[in-house]
Design goal:
ATP-binding; binds adenosine-5'-triphosphate; Threonyl-tRNA Synthetase, Chain A, domain 2; 9% strand; chromosome partition; 9-stranded mixed beta sheet; 15 strands; single chain
Length: 845
Amino acid sequence: MKQDNKTKKNTTSKSANKDKTKGNSLFNIKFLFLIILLFTGIALTVSLVSYLFTGIEDQSSLGAMSDRTATVANQTGKVGAYFGHTLIFSGFGVAAFFLCKILIQTATYGLFGISATRVKNVIFWDLCAMIIVSISLGFFASSNLILGGAVGFEINQYLVDYLGTIGTILLILFFAIAFVIFRFKPSPEKIKNTLDSVKDSVNNTLEKSKQEIADLKTETKKVTVDTPKQETISQQENLEELILNNLIDDETLTDKTTQQSTTEQPESEKSETTTFTMNPKTVKPTIEHSSELPINKKKEEDKSFESMILDTPNDDNFVIEAAEDEEVVEENLAAKLVQDFGEFDPTLELSKYQFPSIDLLKDYGTSSITIDQEELEINKNNIVETLKNYKIDIAQIKATVGPTVTLYEIVPEAGVRISKIKNLEDDIALSLAALGIRIIAPIPGRGTIGIEVPNTKPSIVSMKSVISSPKFQNAEMELPIALGKTISNETFVVDLAKMPHMLMAGATGQGKSVGLNAVLTSLLYKKHPAEVKFVLVDPKKVELTLFNKIERHYLAKLPDAEDAIITDNTKVINTLNSLCIEMDNRYSLLKDAMVRNIKEYNEKFKQRKLNPEQGHRFLPYIVLVVDEFADLIMTAGKEVETPIARLAQLARAIGIHLIIATQRPSVNVITGIIKANFPARVAFRVTSKIDSRTILDGQGADQLIGRGDMLYTQGNDLVRVQCAFVDTPEVERLTEFIGAQKAYPEAYLLPEYVGEETSTAIDVDISERDSLFRQAAEVIVTAQQGSASLLQRKLKLGYNRAGRLIDQLEAAGIVGPFEGSKARVVLIPDLIALEQFFQEEEQNM
Ligand SMILES: Nc1ncnc2c1ncn2[C@@H]1O[C@H](COP(=O)(O)OP(=O)(O)OP(=O)(O)O)[C@@H](O)[C@H]1O
């Protein structure tokens, strides 16, 4: 083993060495090539320069190149004479020097590691310049073939034949200007700057000469009054020294020099007054103009710095590696993909999918509300009179007729206490002889008190009327749900994505199942199968079965599940945990994509900014619908509550939304943790005030009149809504219509989840039995019911331990095998038989 490692190490080090040598030899070849290029460039320059002087002389010898005795005057011999002739005379004229430039510059750039892009640029522009110069000289100096060369001359002839002289001049000028524009990219500022600098230098020269004259005049003065000038000069010399030693900066220097010049000024003025004159040309100034000093010195400084940098490569130990230029992505890849293929369309696989038509829903013929004037009048009078009996005067009363209830809004006279009216709820109900009266005191934001009185003839709010309403059709929501109509007969549309989870409660027969169907129907009318998937849990087995037909369009399931609709409570746990895995997966996808929610993610995916090869995919919304949640909690307890709470807490951003319905809104079903995470609540009629408080955190649900009459809250206000009615035949027609269309090959598959109970071995060793095994057996045999939840309750165990015990009991032969949602059969009839069983077991051991 060790030897293996050793040989491995050896081979790796050998291969590393090999790589190194390979790299070195490659470097050497490149270096050699560049040196050859440099020398060729120099040789060519010499030969071309020499050709300019000796070309005519050598012309006769060109024919006898093979003759060794023939001599040429070119400094680089016959080869040089040949290249000079070919490139200058028969080629591009003096513009052939650009070739020398290209060779030398390429070589030096290569040696100094300057990027290949710059080298390419140089070659390109120099070749362009060579052709333009050759043609220009060929035209303007056509008499001298050496200037333009044969190429320039011939092209000119050709152009003149076709374009005439003026045309050729214009064309040449055009190319020359185009070259200058593209090569040097002159901008107005650049031109202005150049002009300014030219102006400055002219001015400087003028100043300089003026100053020189002035100096000379001072010099003249110096002949008579010598000492002060001496001082100035020595001062200036000192300054020079200072600059050289980098002790003062330019500014101080300029200040000082200006100071000097100002101090000098009167002297020069004085000098003007002297009569002594001198020819300035004959006298050379002893010192240059001081203002030039800093510039020169600065240059020198820069130079020394430059030479410092350039000197460093001479140091053999100091290797400079030229960093490679980063690759430039020419264009945005995502934008190109979108341009080529268009935005990603998630509906493409089922592009022919047709949304169901509204005609599939039934019209109950009562879309408009019938107003019974007489009834309104009687109710109004009763309310006013009852209140008067209690000495409450009303300033104003107004009625709004809704589908099931009429809202009487009253404005009491000043000084009436609201709580007084609120306490009269039962008395008003008595006087109106009606059930389900609800007093809202005050109506939030309206400044009135509301009394809701049920209509004697309530009208049905059909699903058709809410689906066809513009409010739903035009709703720009992620998951719009048309729940029904409010008291003012307005369609009530909410966004499930914003809720983000919904809790639905109501006593049996009050309209929960219809409510769930209304939710699902709304989504089916608005969302394509690619955009939303349902996970349906229906312990009653009959409520949601109709949706089986759309399994391959809209439903999601576990990979090993037979039916997409989950009717077995034990399978719910796996599904919930699988949803938790899906949630985690989606979160990591969102993190990779650097977005905060599913909407942004899908938007980015559609714009092809996310690579499917890295696991990215279009994410459909997932709506988990659980009917009879109470049943689930009773049988599975914490096993269900924990994943539900986790999903409720975290799943909002990644598009998993929960709708949970329960008949029993008691506190052990809707626990604190669940309540805290379900801000949107729908309450159908419940039987007690306590239930109402559990679901709504206040009373009201107990005063509803049933049959789809509901209260909706999303945190603060309570809205009374008449739930839209959708009957079973309508849902059947709808699902049949969708089910008959082309579908995906299978239902949307959720990630696999391996539950703990599935991994438990059946043949459990007797010695490994749980310490509570005997007690558990007694409980099961006494109750004659082999269920884990019974053990949980009786022995106060967790689900996992209870499940393990059941498995051990099965292995021992006390209970029968697992039979879906049914409790297992108990194979031992009573406790006496159980005692015998244990005794026999002991004997056999
Ligand atoms: N929105 C509604 N408009 C008119 N009638 C309704 C409405 N909702 C429900 N009903 C009536 O109430 C009956 C019972 O409704 P539903 O089956 O939805 O009750 P439920 O709360 O699901 O009962 P359970 O919990 O026992 O299943 C329906 O058959 C229907 O006649």
